[in-house]
Structure prediction request, 486 residues.
Amino acid sequence: MKKIALFVSLLLLLLAGVLMYRAVTVFSDTQYQVTQALVPQELNEGQVVARFSQAIQIPTISYDDRSHFDHQAFSDFHTHLAKSFPLVTQYTKQTSIADYSVIYHLVGQNTELKPALFMGHMDVVPIEEASLADWQQEPFSGAVKEGVIWGRGTIDDKVSVLALMESMELYLAQGHQPQRSIYFAFGHDEEAGGDGAKAIAEYFAQQNIQFEFILDEGGVVTEGIVPGAEQPLALVGVAEKGFVNFHLSVKAEGGHSSQPPEHTAAGIVAQAVVAVENHPFEAKLDFFAMMFEKIGFAMPLSSRLPLANLWLLSPVVERALLAKPSSAAGMRTTTAVTMLQGSNKSNVLPTVASAVVNFRILPGDTIASIRAHLVKVIDNPLVQIEEHLANEASVISPTNSLGFELIERTIRRLDDNILVSPYLVLGATDSRHFQALSNNIYRFMMVSLNPTTLKQFHGVNEQISVQDYLQAIQFYYAMVKQSAEG
Prediction:
């Protein structure tokens, strides 16, 4: 018995040694090593901030009901861009798409170099009437108070549009001659489906234009959001989830509730909904493993130990990540029952009952595979399954491309305390329409968010610090300049 206990003890010691050794050795520092920091460009802070503030004051709101579209607001926004950035207006070719989306093209001298495309969107989401009293500054005031710029669009996504235009204006003022063509593409209805961006992508396809890389909104510099990451972490989206709504419906004869069948249409739909919720999609660590590979070396030992030993501890890591909806969403195709409908009166049996289930699709899953999953788990031919508003998940862009390496290098040269990591964008961006135009699509904007300010995305008191906005201009200037140089 003593020999068995000794043998087990030795095995446990050996296992502990292996786990600890791997925790110390598996992760290496593969971050871009800064040898020369970027020299910040001189900016007239007052004028730069004023132009941004004025852009925020123009209520370019996207509504799901297109009849509410404010044509004048978008016209005013275009006028503001033309007035604020005369060199961009003079030296780039502009193409209007779908009335209010726009392309700017700075022609490069070397036609053998594929162009680079930088994206943003001019529209913003509406303000909920009930939330108006909670805003510390008027939502479209563009107020600048104590180093903070307030208003809808300061984060999502006028920051990208205005910072890109500032960067191009500065680049042109310095008299540079681009080798690589640079394109800007600004959609006008990203928040309502992105028809403008879709039309832009179709225009590029018709022109047979392929891009070296595409950079759209998406990831940000996070602080205190990724567990175990003690340094600021720039999350560069290398893929984004797709989405699909599946409408589940059951038809029945209806009638008075005093003489119900064994299962009403509403009851059958309810059973289907429960079956769908009780059979979530398989969780996968692929995207977290990609992130850990880049930042694992900088995480505390308590985090590195399980992350370096997924061969043994992956169930532990999965449980921890699945415990939070934010991290669980990065591991699987999510299932969200969002709408239910039955009879319009309590004593009337429904002739039709329905539910809508929204899925956010993890790369690797497809709309077809989700439908097959629903058919299997519902297992009832009375339930009709129809898809609406569908878009497949994106492909995964490489991290060894010119585009990703340029993004990483620029971030690190601006601030080498920031670590850079690939990640999966959980929402949808306009770049989803551009899959056929480049193998290298990335989603990032140089904005810092923490757990508190992250809630301002589409929320109350959206704001950005003046310093963050100036840093966004420095980032885009460096990206444009380096890309244009070839």
Summary: The chain has 14 helices and 17 strands.
